[in-house]
Specification:
CATH class of chain A: Alpha Beta
CATH architecture of chain A: 3-Layer(aba) Sandwich
Bound molecules: thiamine diphosphate, iron/sulfur cluster
Structural class of chain A: alpha/beta
Helix content of chain A: 25-40%
Shape of chain A: globular
Number of strands of chain A: 12
Largest sheet of chain A: 8 strands, mixed
CATH class of the largest domain in chain B: Alpha Beta
Order of helices and strands of chain B: EHEHEHEHHEHEHEEHEHEEHEEHEHEHE
CATH superfamily of chain A: Thiamin diphosphate (ThDP)-binding fold, Pyr/PP domains
Structural class of chain B: alpha/beta
CATH superfamily of the largest domain in chain B: Thiamin diphosphate (ThDP)-binding fold, Pyr/PP domains
Number of strands of chain B: 16
Oligomer: heterodimer
Chain lengths: 309, 391
């Protein structure tokens, strides 16, 4: 998969739904992931965006970077707004007042807007079975508001509200496993993806929008500003996250797990952690402990996928 | 022609929402609103209403789903009360500022704590500044008529604002009354189909809900203020057209026996009907008293209120909510503000009552008027009194 990068531009659609000139930081993984995802989604879609980096960088009265119909209302209600859009279009289609039979409703939000404050609305939308695709762009923190922790922030990372200090190593809880929570809603499609693996991401988004019913895709998106790394490392860190087992790529179709990429052996976690300032304070012991836990989780996942073969 | 039938107000509201051919209902149950949303679910389940019913997991999501559905161009209704309305709070501002005409019935209820499922106006008063058109109704017929009007006012192209129809929880929502529910054909002659000017549509992409830097935020708010102010004429015109077709007329401020009255009582909502019986009684005894009722709470009808108060000497304002640590009732502070610059203004006396479902009877309103007149003459050490409170 890795050697594919040179061919990628030729393999993807030329559609650009987010116009250049937006205000994302250099090296932003979220905006890159959006670019890729919306190549798969195409033009017949409505976008519902949560408050967060991706909303702020693309909208400022009286301008917009979006070439698709786009709505932002609040931070935590994206899945509910998307439910309403979907229901509205459905009713109007039935009554002959809406002329596109297949418009896709796509909700996009950061990890904060998904795993924390928006979890209830998301759970409701998944449970009710709306025909929509929800994509979480996970940069492992509340970046828009100045790099605060979320429940998707990894153990040991220092953020502005989980600072490392004399009495603390930083974030003291383990990353919430939202894809698993989505799977437990028994929805037809759940996947993880990362813009460092663009073909994989695009294929998953295609599956997600083609799904009848709710689909959830969790996209690991590097954030140089929040992670304290060089701006040219976003892609590399995404790959390393996958190769170290920190962020495994898989999909779950109708409850059936399938790994998308299986490294022969997991790379040492330091390869991934070292270039990032948020982990720099961690001692070897702590890093070892994290590495052990990451491996355990990874093999558990692998086993689940193998058992279901 | 529509028949007059005995029906619970809540059910009548659901029936008329169905007759307005709503496309989407997104709602979460809360006493005393439940009968409205249950009956709507029933109408959908039995094919009597062709709509998407979204049984959301909270009121925050109910209002959020309503935003999405209106933005898509669908006629949308919800209902709530008390805690539910408070949970929606943040979303209410967005509906008005983004000009998404969600129509909502609020069966007014007290707000915790202590928990109370019973009626008062604390819930709606806490949403005073959310930018919605807010109407108050006094009986079942008014609730039905104003629900129809709400769709027409809110969805008018020059308005495009959400509308809240307030009716007292239990005291009105659960009353069985003789009500005429207009037929679908009659309603469709009055209410045009919803035609949202720029819905979310892939053929003509629009961006809704951009953020505003300081250089443009004030302008956005000023535009909103002009928008709701200008809606006033459409509101009046809608009531006028409704009256012409259905024979029932509504005014932003309603008067009762105000002719020659020296003392006026001011009320809002269903308690006004009880207050009228008190006025009748006192008038029979030769007292020069009258009643003013505010029906249109937002946009606030400043001119009509001033005219209705006229040259009365005493104005006793009865609030069903308390602004704790403040001026007593929220209505009285607005009324005082509306009259402050008038060269001739009445002595304004403030009463709070009917909190958390406590009834105020005809005798109660008579006592309030008598005590109010006393305070007007002799003054009082208190900014306001809570009627019937035990110390
Ligand atoms: C109800 C509410 N609480 C808090 C905020 C402030 N806020 C805006 S965006 C944000 C964090 C966004 O984080 P995330 O969803 O992870 O997206 P990111 O910016 O990292 O892409 C916060 C806390 C808000 N807008 N609304
Ligand atoms: S803070 Fe991070 S997620 Fe936000 S725009 Fe910058 S790089 Fe992207």
């Amino acid at each position: 998969m890795i050697g594919q990068s040179v061919y990628v531009p030729r393999l993807l659609s030329e559609i650009e739904s987010l116009a250049p000139g937006h205000r994302a930081c250099i090296g932003c993984g979220e905006v890159l992931a959006i670019r890729q995802a919306f190549k798969a989604i195409g033009r017949d879609a409505v976008v519902v965006n949560a408050t967060g980096c991706m909303e702020i960088i693309a909208s400022q009265l009286p301008y917009t970077s979006w070439r698709l119909p786009w709505i932002h209302t609040l931070f935590e209600n994206t899945a509910a707004v998307a439910s309403g859009v979907e229901a509205g279009l459905k009713a109007m289609k039935r009554k002959g007042r809406y002329d596109h039979p297949d418009t896709k409703v796509v909700a996009i939000a950061g990890d904060g807007g998904t795993v924390d404050i928006g979890l209830q609305a998301l759970s409701g939308a998944l449970e009710r079975g709306h025909n929509l695709l929800y994509i979480c762009f996970d940069n492992e923190g509340y970046m828009n508001t100045g790099v605060q922790r979320s429940s998707a922030t990894p153990y040991g990372a220092t953020t502005t509200t989980s600072p490392a200090g004399k009495q603390s190593i930083g974030q003291l809880s383990w990353k919430k496993d939202l894809p698993a929570i989505a799977v437990d809603h028994r929805i037809p499609y759940v996947a993880t993806a990362c813009p460092s693996f663009p073909i994989d991401l695009v294929e998953k988004v295609k599956k997600g929008v083609a799904t009848k019913g709710p689909a959830y895709i969790h996209v690991f998106s590097g954030c140089p500003t929040g992670w304290g790394c060089a701006t040219n490392l976003t892609i590399k860190l995404g790959r390393l996250a996958v190769e170290t087992g920190v962020f495994p790529l898989y999909e779950v179709e109708n409850g059936k797990y399938k790994m998308s990429y299986k490294p022969e052996t997991l790379r040492p976690i330091t390869d991934y952690m070292k270039p990032q300032r948020r982990f720099r304070h961690l001692t070897e012991d702590v890093i070892k402990m994290i590495e052990k836990r990451v491996a355990e989780e990874y093999y558990k996942l692998l086993e689940k996928a193998e058992c279901q073969k | 022609m529509a028949k007059r039938v005995g029906i619970e107000t809540s059910l009548a509201i659901s029936e008329v929402v169905a007759a307005c051919d709503v496309d989407v209902v997104a709602a979460y149950p809360i006493t005393p609103q439940t009968h409205i949303v249950e009956h709507l679910a029933d109408l959908v389940a039995n094919g009597k209403l062709d709509a998407e019913y979204i049984p959301v997991e909270s009121e925050h999501s109910a209002m959020s789903a309503c935003l999405g559905s209106v933005a898509a161009g669908a006629r949308t209704f919800t209902a709530s009360a008390g805690q539910g309305l408070e949970l929606m709070h943040e979303v209410l501002f967005v509906a008005s500022a983004m000009r998404l005409p969600v129509i909502m019935a609020v069966t007014n209820r007290a707000v915790s704590s202590p928990l109370s499922v019973w009626g008062d106006h604390s819930d709606v008063m806490a949403t005073r500044d959310v930018g919605w058109i807010q109407l108050f109704v006094e009986n079942g017929q008014e609730a039905v008529d104003n629900t129809i009007c709400a769709f027409k006012m809110g969805e008018a192209k020059n308005v495009l604002l959400p509308v809240m129809v307030n009716l007292d929880g239990f005291h009105l929502s659960h009353m069985i009354e003789p009500i005429t529910i207009p037929e679908r054909e009659e309603i469709s002659r009055f209410l045009p189909p919803f035609d949202y000017p720029l819905p979310l549509h892939p053929d003509k992409p629009v961006a809704m809900g951009d953020f505003a830097p300081p250089v443009i935020f004030s302008e956005a708010k000023w535009a909103q203020e002009i928008n709701i102010r200008d809606s006033y004429e459409t509101i009046i015109q809608t009531w006028q057209e409704f009256g012409q077709q259905f024979g029932r007329y509504y005014q932003p401020v309603e008067k009762y026996c105000t002719e020659g009255a020296e003392t006026l009582l001011l009320t809002m909502g269903s308690f006004s009907e009880t207050a009228m019986t008190a006025i009748d009684n006192l008038r029979e005894q030769g007292q020069k008293v009258g009643l003013v009722r505010i029906r249109l709470w937002r946009p606030f009808p400043f001119e009509e209120l001033r005219k209705a108060v006229g040259s009365a000497k005493t104005l006793i304002v009865f609030d069903r909510a308390i602004s704790v640590g403040g001026p007593g009732g929220p209505v009285v502070s607005e009324v005082k503000a509306a009259l402050y610059n008038e060269p001739q203004k009445p002595n304004v006396v403030s009463f709070v009552g009917g909190l958390g479902g406590r009834d105020v009877t005809r005798e109660g309103f008579e006592e309030i008027i008598t005590r109010g007149q006393e305070i007007a003459e002799q003054g009082s050490p208190n900014e306001f009194e809570i009627y019937g409170v035990r110390e």
